[in-house]
Amino acid sequence: MSDSPSAAPVVLDLWCELECPDCHQALSDVHALRARYGDRLEIRLRHFPLEKHKHAYAAAQAAEEAVVQGKGWPYIEAVLARTADLARGGEPLLLEVARELDLDAEEFDTALIDGRHLLIVDADQAEGKAIGVTGTPTYVIGDERLDGGKSQEGLRARIEEIADRLLAAQG
Question: How sure is the predictor about 171, in pLDDT bands with cuts at 50, 70 and 90?
Fold first, then answer.
């Protein structure tokens, strides 16, 4: 039953870091993929903070707090839109974005201090390393890993090709 609502969506893991300019550029692909596939493609952000970006680890934790507060993707996209500001401004920008989205900025601050989301970020990073992720953005769909850290050219077309094949196999 290929058109049944119970058909599981194809999963696209996006290994990302919120201070990464390449991840900012990848947002246009994410928007296009959402527009094309809707709920047939589940795009999951996976954290892969890079050591070269001073505020990426805090940003990953803040993104997890945004998920808890019900605005994960809006927060992620708002921070990615301001990667240069994050590089300059650090954690105050993370709280500013939370306020702009009407989230509880005090709870964000507390979450960054108490480290309640460290395990999620660390687990994502460890899993990424285990499967060979070395930079961001990196996409994993089906059993294929696509590295967008060097060049994103042609990646969306490749993701669509794989997604189409996986969706067709469900039917």
Answer: confident
Q: Dihedrals φ, ψ of 101, to 5°?
A: -95, 15
Q: Is a pLDDT exceeding 50 seen at residue 99?
A: yes
Neighbours of 75 (CB within 10 A): 26
Report yes or no: 74 and 17 within 8 Å, Cβ to Cβ. Answer: no
Per-residue pLDDT of 118-143, as tens digits, reads 999 999 999 999 999 999 999 999 98
- Which segments of the chain does DSSP mark as H helices, in order? 21-37, 56-68, 72-80, 83-89, 91-100, 105-114, 118-130, 155-170
Going by their DSSP bridges, the two strands 138-141 and 41-47 should be labelled as unpaired
Closest to 118 in 3D by CA, of 72, 64, 46: 64
CA–CA separation, 87 vs 145, rounded Å?
Answer: 28
| Alpha carbon distances (Å) from 23 to 50, 97, 131, 157, 162 | 12, 18, 19, 17, 21
The per-residue pLDDT for 23 is 92
